[in-house]
Amino acid sequence: MKKSMQSRSVLSEIMLPCQANPSGKVHGGEIMKMMDNCGGVAAMRHAKTNVVTVRVDEMVFHQPIMVGQLVICEAQLVFAGRTSMEVKVTVKVEDMMNELPTKVALTAFFTYVALDEEGKPCQVPGLLVETEEEKEAFENGRQRYLEHKKNRQKTEEPVRR
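^ that's the sequence the OP posted. Answer follows.
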């Protein structure tokens, strides 16, 4: 069992013109890539093995990110199953030219599966939840996991030989 803080990951980067459209707004795909990298680090820290992204849930763009702003991406495990892990990724923006507080620009839940040396899914350590906030996040993650599992079973066709 591991605490979620043991896998926490933070990644920051100044947004440049090559990452934006002509109006100076950063492309969503640039931010999504940054989120996936940060979330992947958190999952690898927890599993201590390679991981792959299998799903992104509830990606919400709260506000645009502009060229010149500092993007701070924070990732933390909220749920661990047998081979999969759900990581909450929060993106904050800071305008370094003024004293305004950082603002949340995006949030999402990324699901990763741990892989062994042969590329097969492998078991991950359990997640130790201690605070009420961690317990609630874990339960919400478990509910998303069960819902996706149920939907996947509905859509899988039986193998015909």
